[in-house]
Structure formats: C-alpha cells, structure tokens
Amino acid sequence: MATELLEIQPQVLKFTFEVKKQSSCSIQLGNNSNQYVAFKVKTTSPKKYCVRPNTGIIKPKATYDFTVTMQAQRVAPPDMQCKDKFLIQSTVVPFGTTEEDLTSDTFSKDGSKYIEEKKLRVILISPPPSPVLLPCNGALKQDPSSETLVQRLLSGVENIPPPRKVAEDAKLIETAEELDELRAAECVDSRPSDDVEGLKSVKNVVELNITKDFEDMKSKLNTMDSKLREAELTITKLTEERNMTTVEKDTLKDELMSELKQIAMVLGSSYNSFIQRLMNGKEMLRKNNVRRIQMGFPLFYVCMVALISVAVGYLIHP
Predict the structure, then answer these.
(1) Cα–Cα distance between 5 and 13 in angstroms, integer?
(2) Residues 123-153: pLDDT tens digits?
(3) Which residues span the membrane (predicted)?
(4) Please, are residues 1 and 110 in contact by the beta-carbon 8 Å criterion?
(5) Residue of 86, 88, 121, 120 whose CA lies nearest to 107
(6) Across residues 55-75, what is the average pLDDT?
(7) Which of 23, 168, 179, 264 could tie 15 with a disulfide, CB 3.0–4.6 Å?
(8) How far apart, in Å, are the Cα atoms of 83 and each of 45, 52, 54, 89?
(9) Left, alpha or beta for 20 (phi > 0: left; psi -120 to 50: alpha)?
C-alpha cells in the first residue's frame, strides 16, 4: 500500500524497571486510512507482559489507546538489557466488523489480503533516585543540595542521547536469533496476567466468594440429604408393601389351588360313582332282557305245536 495503515506512538516501549514492582507503558495507534482497520498485538514473552486489549478495531482517521504492563520481576536483567519485542499486525476489515468477529484467520498471511506488521523494542529505564531527607527541628526536610543533585542527574540523563542512540541503533540490527523469536511470537498471543500488587485484595474477594459458595453448597447438600432420607423411607415403605402384597398373593394362590384340588377330587369321585351306577344299570337291563327271552320261548313253542296240530287234524278229518 502507498501509505501505512497505522501510526504507532511511541516506537520504543520504555519501562521503568524496579524489582518486585510492575510498570506500564501506553501506546497510541492512529488509523491513517479511510477504512476500518483491525489490529492485534503479540509478544515474544506473553507471560511477562499484559496487553489490554490485545485486539481491536480502529475507525477511519481515529486513534486507539492500549496499555502494556510489565509484571513485577524478582531479578533485574544483566546491564538492564532486554531482548523482548512486540509485533503489531494490522489489516483492513469490512464495515460492521466487531471485535468478536476477529480470529486468528483475520491476520493470517494467505496472500489475498494485506497484513501490515510493525515491531517494537523494549527498553528498561532505571528509576530516578529518591530525594534525601534531613532532620530539621524534629521534622524531616528535603536537602536542597540533594534536590539540585537530582535535577542535575535527571537533566544529565536526558542530555546523553548519543550513547543511547548508539545502543538503539545497535539493537536495530536484528540477529538471526531475534528473527526466530519474532517468528515464534506470531504463534503466541499475549495474555493478561494477574495484578501482583492487587493479589491480596483479589485473594480476600476470592476467599469471601469461596466461603459464600461453600455455605450455599452446604445448605444445598443438607437439603439434598433430607430429600434423600425421605426418598429412602418412601422406598422402604414401598418395598415392605410390595413384599406383603407378594405374600398375600402367594397365600391366595395356595388357597385357590387347594380348593381346586378338593373340587377336582369331589368331581372325580362323583364321576366314578356315576359311571359305576351307569354300568350297574346297564347290567341289570341286560339280565332283564335275557329273562324275558327265556320266559317267552315255551309259549311260542306251545302255540306253534297247537296250530300244527289243528292243521293236521283238519287235514285228516275234512
């Protein structure tokens, strides 16, 4: 592109370094274009710095401020030299794009869109010396000579740009290792870390929240325990009722089976007696028929003989 998308101020991040104290630096991004520009901040040391926010969208011809906080360090680096670097990526986005729409693909170099990248170095500055206080009439009073000395030191620090400029020019020559670090930084997003100075207050708030949550959980557990006991009692009663119902059912079944057996026995004996009686009646009928046959044969014989005799007599005596 003919012009740069963003104008970054300052170009170098300066942090006042003190052991076990954090330091902050404000950065302003200016949109030089007439389009909406999205930006993303990355660093080679994401656990050491806190960037808030690390992504955003800048309106046309507008500015955007964000803060970079260096967390408290336990040990000072050798010779106050820092190799940490920041990378600010920017690209044009359509109108209406929100910060929630920004993803890692928004700043990926796929060749179809222009991604502008700018690198920022980090410089550590020693804190100014504290003023010397002298006792005067029982009270502490600032020594004017020390105040003059402080002003001279401050003015001396401000008036030695050549050495710092030489150091900055030397740092501008990036070695292969620094290039590797920046490439690694492209895959690591800067993440906000906890505020060390406010750790106690946060701890107290967390403890209060934990205590409150514990009490709520305890009350809920007691309620659940009482409901569980009621459910156990109900289950016990239902189990007893089911057992009693099973016993009653088995008893009724046994009684019914015994009654059916008795009925079957009665029916069986009645059937046998009925069959026996029927056989006896049949035998008696058979005997009666035989007797009738035996009693009717002589009469028939007599009649036949009489008829024959009459016929013979008629034939003899016509």
Answers:
(1) 20
(2) 998 888 766 554 554 444 454 444 444 454 4
(3) 296-316
(4) no
(5) 88
(6) 92
(7) 23
(8) 10, 21, 20, 20
(9) left
**According to the model, what pLDDT value does residue 110 have?**
76
Name residues whose C-beta falls within 8 Å of residue 19's C-beta, 6 or more positions apart in sequence.
72, 73, 74, 75, 76
Cβ–Cβ < 8 Å for 125, 15:
yes
Global confidence as pTM: 0.43
Query: Measured between alpha carbons, how far is residue 22 from residues 15, 16, 88, 100, 318 in Å?
Result: 9, 9, 22, 29, 177
> Sign of dihedral through CA atoms 198, 204, 210, 216?
negative
Please provide residue 26's backbone torsions phi and psi, each rounded to the nearest 5 degrees.
-95, 140
145-149, 253-257, 284-288: lowest mean pLDDT where? 145-149
Q: In this structure, how many other beta carbons lie within 10 angstroms of the beta carbon of residue 149?
A: 14
Two structure tokens written together for 203? 């701890």
pLDDT band for 157, please (50, 70, 90 cuts): very low
